């Protein structure tokens, strides 16, 4: 059992299925710089995800940083403290001041009702996160952005293949950014992508991720080396063949968790709409210490002692890290809901190959603990 129970993991194809891709890379002698597998994966992902244009990146952080550069964002950007640090780090790397606003306690997404009050003359954009793949209130956010002339960049790291009312959530905002890190539903070891609304912005993004080169002699922007290599792209093409199966297995495991644990007092699940075609990337539960025998951290510790590696995701808040604590928007009175959910959340192990006996062991530990007398 040790090291087998993980928070999340892809469905790994058989090793032998990757060998033909490696042989083709070896034969072509094209390892990077937009090789054939890179081009194939961009086209295949755009078709699968239901988007017009997509630009692949070596990782999601570079994609976020480049998205900000591509839209020439400056000044202040309103964002959420309840996310992975790459969200706000991408702003600091672009010399932009993050302004944190509170989240909706039911969805853990940025609360649109809090955005307008945070807008100043220096605000140029909003960067919401589709937390756990649950869509933000995209219509409300877009209305605010339109009223104030702001850009919207969605951190959609968790939102691969998520659709709401049949429409890809990746088509909202000016740009959406995906992560293909090894822990994501779809992965290329490391990797990421920017969803682009038109060919013009895709070309600018493609220049920026390749040092700003248009051709051998012409550099038009201070770009970075954000390109995805052929090995990553090949693995992505292979992963794409199994993605529907992987999401189906995730869904079955998530629904089992919900069925078995929903009746436990002091333990709750996240809310999501019935119209949502979700990807079941995570299984967050929330521990209310008023009714559950242990505090969240105590439950986390007990699970870890028994080699069940759940994750407090997201804890601490981004706003609690030293490089952000001095900002006025990080004051605790400004973020009560984010602080509350951060103190309660625990993501249970969820990956396609989670065995029945592993699942039973995890839920039985939680059930036994829930039956203890309150401390």
UniProtKB/TrEMBL annotation:
SUPFAM superfamilies (UniProt xref): PLP-dependent transferases
InterPro entries: DegT/StrS_aminotransferase, PyrdxlP-dep_Trfase, PyrdxlP-dep_Trfase_major
Coiled-coil region(s): none
One BP annotation, GO: polysaccharide biosynthetic process
Gene3D superfamilies in the cross-refs: Type I PLP-dependent aspartate aminotransferase-like (Major domain)
Keywords: Pyridoxal phosphate
Superkingdom classification of source: Bacteria
Active site (catalytic residues): 184
GO molecular function, one term: transaminase activity
Similarity comment: family membership: Belongs to the DegT/DnrJ/EryC1 family.
PANTHER family cross-referenced by the UniProt entry: PROTEIN RV3402C, TRANSAMINASE
Name the UniProt record assigns to this protein: dTDP-4-amino-4,6-dideoxygalactose transaminase
Species per Swiss-Prot/TrEMBL record: Kosakonia arachidis
